[in-house]
């Protein structure tokens, strides 16, 4: 135990004496959360939409009016026929065209089967998805209002509210995502680099020749980063809550517990990376490419997994960040308890043990 | 001196294979308590492989090996407590001070805190580096780093210290001083097992083994080796063996 304490003190000295390490640990997370929160927004602000009204009756006019009046939409163009749509999108004027079928009002009153087509420029899938949802919501609300006032039998039962993120605020999505990214990158990258550094300067051999056990060396390397990452996680949650007003509806303790589990998983992954690499550069390279890209692209952080090709969907099952992101989104935004996220917790635990066992084995015979 | 009870390292038929490549081909030799045993050979002759096996960093493919009276297969933890190790990399932490490095390494060998404190002060005085004691290793001249690395390797008073090319890349004066330190520790009863490819250093050893392509081709005192081969320098013995 005394040996272990000495090891820990040494690790903390390494961290606190190195300005670069300190910056990566504490400045980058804050910078990232602010950048993601403020700059990369995919909220809708005065989105331009066009209307192709093939019916031109009072109902289509009312609906168009409502869309125009909605705070985030402006009906910028009225098109005359289908062939105009392509040109409208190519000109980049807007991202959506709302098409009312001929005889819309008649159909609406007659058979309750009036059709509106929403055509979206899906080159920005997230934005078009948001616009799509928002427009449908406006139309549904209109229909619901009509049913209320005109005919007593309300046929349309769609719920137009955007659950969990009623204002469609992107920061609600970005704070958990950024937190996932930061915890993953910093913990895995920093541990792998700090272990590989010992290999590079030759001190690892001395540690392995000493009576310290491989598990003690791993734990000694990892423990400081567990503590620092927890501080990081808390500061990100606080920043998100205070600056971007991201709520924490669920249990804070559960949120912290899941975060600690994820941190430990990432650390074990870092140890594993260090056991298969020989230089700090390669360790950093692997951490960046093998961890950062999947974490950004395949975790559901920016791109919805459901919209991906099947192969990528399968691939996303082995991305640890995906499970953590699902868990913390559910805790923070929906306020669910363990009963709803036990599967994710179990998967993260399994991954932690997997990497731990693999690393200890590799560590013993790495020379 | 060459008494059987005094064997501190006993190697019989040590073989280490990496796939088809045989790095150590059937090595057998003994090292006696308190001697300075030189392990010579060209780069790639298999010196480092052997020293790693003896110090518990790697397992042999076959053979019987006893270090400090313990079996390398079964009693590694006991071996680890009895040996010190220094490699060609100086293996001190550059961002730690001299004192912190000593404390750290002494700490992982489990020495009591009081003892660490006292012996650290003794060592700093002995080396005459009082004014450098609280400086970072990064600020120390190379020669001092290396002397300090050696002192740290024998700080816990091991029975054997393994030195893997400890003087490579060091100026001649520092090398000379370094060898003085080796003599002093041998006088205190620490067995020194040193690999080198500087042939002049072989003259400083009590006994020398010369490795060529994974095999030990000669093993004796430097004087006898030169006699047997009819040459004036160990270097010439080495060249004769390598050309064979």
Throw out a few tags for this protein:
heterodimer; A: 367 residues; alpha/beta; abc type-2 transporter like fold; 4-stranded mixed sheet; 14 helices; B: 244 residues; 6-stranded mixed sheet; 4-stranded antiparallel sheet; 9 helices
Describe the structure.
The complex is a heterodimer of chains A (about 375) and B (about 240). Chain A is of the alpha/beta class and about 375 residues long. Chain A contains 14 helices and 4 strands. Chain A has 2 domains: about 45-165, abc type-2 transporter like domain (abc type-2 transporter like fold), CATH 3.40.1710; about 170-365, no CATH class. Helices cover about 70% and strands about 5% of the residues of chain A. In chain A, helix 2 runs antiparallel to helix 7, helix 7 runs parallel beside helix 10 (about 250-275) and helix 10 (about 250-275) packs parallel to helix 14. The longest helix of chain A is centred in the middle third of the chain and has 32 residues, at about 170-200. Chain B is an alpha/beta fold. In chain B, helix 3 (about 100-110) crosses helix 4 (about 115-125). The chains are: A alpha/beta (about 375), B alpha/beta (about 240). The interface of A and B includes residues 10, 13, 18, 201 and 207 of A.
**Residue-averaged pLDDT of chain A:** 81
**On the 0-100 scale, what is the average pLDDT of chain B?**
89
Counted by DSSP, the helix tally of chain B is 9
Helix count, DSSP H or I runs of 4 or more residues of chain A: 14
Q: Low-confidence runs of chain A (pLDDT<50, min 5 residues)? A: 152-168
Q: What string gives the helices and strands of chain A in order?
A: HHEHEHEHEHHHHHHHHH
Rounded to an integer, what's the Rg of chain B over CA atoms?
18 Å
Distance between the termini of chain B: 32 Å
Query: Structural class from helices and strands of chain B?
Result: alpha/beta
The percent range for strand residues of chain B is 25-35%
How many strands in all of chain A?
4
Written as H for each helix and E for each strand, in order along the chain, the element string of chain B is EEEHEEHEHHHEHEHEEHH
Largest sheet of chain A: 4 strands, mixed
Helix-residue proportion of chain A? 55-70%
Q: What percentage of residues of chain B falls in helices of 4 or more residues? A: 25-40%
Counting helices, strands and paired strands, the structural category of chain A is alpha/beta
What gyration radius of chain A follows from the Cα positions, in whole Å?
26 Å
């Amino acid at each position: 135990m005394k040996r272990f304490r000495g090891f820990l003190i040494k690790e903390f000295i390494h961290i606190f004496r190195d300005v670069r390490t300190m910056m990566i640990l504490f400045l980058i997370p804050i910078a990232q959360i602010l950048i993601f929160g403020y700059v990369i927004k995919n909220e809708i602000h005065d989105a331009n939409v066009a209307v192709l009204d093939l019916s031109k009756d009072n109902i289509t006019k009312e609906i168009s009016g409502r869309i125009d009046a909605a705070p985030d939409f402006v009906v910028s163009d009225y098109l005359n026929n289908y062939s105009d749509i392509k040109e409208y999108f190519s000109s980049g004027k807007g991202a959506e065209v709302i098409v009312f079928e001929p005889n819309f009002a008649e159909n609406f009153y007659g058979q309750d089967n009036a059709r509106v087509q929403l055509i979206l420029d899906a080159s920005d899938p997230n934005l078009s998805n948001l616009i799509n949802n928002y427009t449908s919501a406006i139309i549904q609300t209109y229909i619901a209002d009509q049913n209320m006032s005109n005919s007593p039998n309300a046929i349309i039962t769609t719920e137009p509210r955007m659950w969990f993120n009623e204002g469609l605020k992107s920061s609600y999505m970005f704070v958990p995502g950024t937190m996932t990214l930061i915890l993953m990158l910093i913990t895995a990258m920093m541990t792998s680099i700090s272990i590989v550094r010992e290999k590079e300067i030759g001190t690892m051999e001395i540690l392995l020749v000493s009576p310290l056990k491989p598990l003690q060396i791993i734990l000694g390397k990892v423990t400081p980063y567990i503590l620092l990452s927890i501080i990081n996680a808390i500061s990100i949650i606080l920043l998100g809550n205070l600056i971007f007003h991201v709520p924490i509806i669920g249990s804070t303790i559960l949120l912290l517990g899941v975060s600690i589990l994820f941190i430990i998983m990432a650390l074990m992954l870092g140890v594993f990376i260090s056991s298969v690499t020989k230089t700090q550069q390669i360790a950093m390279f692997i951490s960046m490419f093998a961890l950062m890209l999947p974490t950004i692209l395949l975790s559901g952080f920016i791109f919805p997994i459901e919209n991906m090709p099947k192969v990528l969907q399968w691939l996303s099952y082995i991305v640890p960040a995906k499970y953590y992101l699902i868990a913390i989104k559910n805790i923070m935004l929906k306020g669910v308890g363990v009963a709803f996220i036990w599967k994710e917790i179990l998967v993260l635990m399994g991954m932690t043990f997997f990497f731990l066992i693999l690393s200890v084995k590799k560590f013993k015979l790495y020379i | 001196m060459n008494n059987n009870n005094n064997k501190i390292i006993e190697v019989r038929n040590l073989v280490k294979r990496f796939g088809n490549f045989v790095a150590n081909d059937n090595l057998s030799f003994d090292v006696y308590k308190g001697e300075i045993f030189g392990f010579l050979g060209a780069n790639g002759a298999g010196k480092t492989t052997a020293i790693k096996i003896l110090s518990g960093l790697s397992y042999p493919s076959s053979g019987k090996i006893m270090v400090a009276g313990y079996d390398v297969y079964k009693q590694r933890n006991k071996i680890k407590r009895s040996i010190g190790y220094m490699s060609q990399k100086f293996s001190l932490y550059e961002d730690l001070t001299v004192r912190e490095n000593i404390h750290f390494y002494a700490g992982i060998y489990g020495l009591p805190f009081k003892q660490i404190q006292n012996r650290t002060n003794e060592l700093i005085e002995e080396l005459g580096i009082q004014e450098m004691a609280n400086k970072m290793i990064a600020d120390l001249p190379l020669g001092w780093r290396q002397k300090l690395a050696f002192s740290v390797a024998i700080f816990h008073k091991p029975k054997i210290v393994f030195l893997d090319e400890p003087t490579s890349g060091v100026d001649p004066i520092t090398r000379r001083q370094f060898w003085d330190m080796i003599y002093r520790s041998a006088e205190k009863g620490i067995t020194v097992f040193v690999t080198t490819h500087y042939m002049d250093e072989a003259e400083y050893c009590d006994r020398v083994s010369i490795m060529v392509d994974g095999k030990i081709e000669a093993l004796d005192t430097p004087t006898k080796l030169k006699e047997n081969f009819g040459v004036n320098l160990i270097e010439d013995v080495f060249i004769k063996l390598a050309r064979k």
